[in-house]
Design goal:
Length: about 375
């Protein structure tokens, strides 16, 4: 058995462990475990510094998960975009491929709580169906292995899947969405990297949310992937009490760059049943973006996105940099709130000067789809 597999076996992995290790009430911990499986591997557990700290909040269940709310179990309507059990096909040219229900740590804020940890919903028996689906859809040029965490599979199984995809000439790139470099960096082994590098172009997106997760072990794991020629990106989730301040976010982004990880997305927390205590007002995310752009390397700046409820996909949000328009002059502000005027180029095909307004009025004809919680659930 490899080290990471031995470590997994030593995880806090049940309601009972929670009672013994953290003095939880027995009945409460059973209810929490039933709602969403508890698992914290010993590496991630060792990052906790005190109860309620940003690491604790991400992995130790909270009574608030049991609060009744009207929010959907499937906020992104993934199930209705799922032509076969292992595939979510929402965008024209790329798919999510759900390969395993397992994770080495179950994040209490997981947006896919309804499936993750439940092997009746995500299972290896559906993998061939996924490969067949992609084979039959030549428009799919980008496949994102997800789950659960695809690095919970053995190297052998993972290679079978990746090799199966590489046999399809229309699959241009393969991405691995894995939290392992952050939560169980021991999973990134020389053997794994040697296997992966045979299947370029391959990308990894990992998931760090707090600077305390940027340990020497995590750094080593990310560097090994980078040394194998794999560009590593990061998808963070903005969460109350975890990383909802500009100082914490700035430190996280800078640390990621020193680990050769490029910030990719910063997600507004989804409206998932049992995870609403993590949500922040959208203004908090915008304020953080405002405090990043211009103040530090452009490389350190992720795109702030809301994954639209009901399955609209990721929508980027930016602080307001365009203050207005005066004829052909666009009024802008920079990161220090200094005001500038940019003389736009006359658009000769349209008059009088459409410019900025044109962008915003293009699709007016279509009525906007409004999110209705009771209509989203399937
Ligand atoms: C996020 C996501 C993708 C990938 O989106 P990119 O913006 O290309 O990174 C693809 N499919 C689904 C269903 C997603 O949620
Ligand atoms: S690693 Fe990803 S899939 Fe697994 S629990 Fe965390 S957020 Fe969910």
């Amino acid at each position: 058995m490899e080290l990471w597999q031995t470590m997994l076996r030593q995880s806090v992995d049940s309601g009972k462990d929670l009672v013994e290790r953290f003095g939880f009430d027995k009945e409460l911990s059973e209810r929490l475990n039933k709602l969403f499986h508890i698992r914290i591997n010993p590496y991630y557990l060792s990052l906790i510094r005190f109860p309620g700290d940003p690491i604790w909040l991400q992995c130790i269940p909270d009574e608030k998960e049991l609060e009744e709310d009207d929010f959907p179990e499937d906020p992104l309507a993934e199930d209705s975009h799922s032509p076969v059990p292992s595939i979510v096909h929402r965008y024209p040219d790329r798919v999510l491929f759900l390969t395993t229900s397992q994770c080495s740590m179950y994040c209490r804020f997981c947006t896919r709580k309804r499936k993750v940890g439940d092997s009746s919903k995500i299972n290896m028996k559906y993998i061939q169906g996924g490969i067949d689906y992609i084979a039959a859809h030549p428009e799919v040029r980008d496949v994102i292995l997800s789950g659960g965490d695809p690095l919970m599979l053995t190297d052998f199984m993972l290679e079978r899947i990746i090799a199966g995809l590489r046999d399809l000439p229309h699959v241009e790139i393969i991405r691995l969405g894995t939290k392992m470099p952050c939560v169980l960096p021991q999973r990134i082994t020389p053997k794994l990297c040697k296997m992966l590098r045979k299947y370029h172009p391959l990308y990894v997106n990992t998931h760090f949310n707090h600077p305390w997760e940027c340990t020497p072990e995590a750094k080593r794991a990310c560097e090994m992937l980078a040394d194998a020629g794999i560009p590593v990106g990061n998808q963070a989730v903005l969460m109350k009490g975890v990383n909802d301040s500009a100082e914490v976010m700035l430190e996280l982004m800078r640390k990621l760059l020193t680990m050769r990880v490029r910030p990719y997305y910063l997600y507004q927390a989804d409206i998932t049943k049992g995870a609403n205590h993590f949500r922040t007002p959208v203004s908090v995310g915008l304020e953080i973006m405002d405090r990043l752009r211009g103040h530090t390397s452009g490389l350190a700046i992720p795109a702030f996105v809301i994954d639209a409820p009901g399955g609209g996909g990721k929508i980027p949000l930016l602080p307001q940099y365009v203050l207005g328009r005066n004829g052909n002059q666009i009024i802008l502000r920079n990161y220090k709130y200094d005001i500038f005027t940019y003389p736009d180029v006359e658009d000769e095909t349209k008059s009088p000067s459409p410019g900025v307004e044109k962008q915003f009025s293009r699709k007016k004809a279509r009525a906007p789809k409004v999110y209705q919680p009771d209509k989203v659930q399937v």
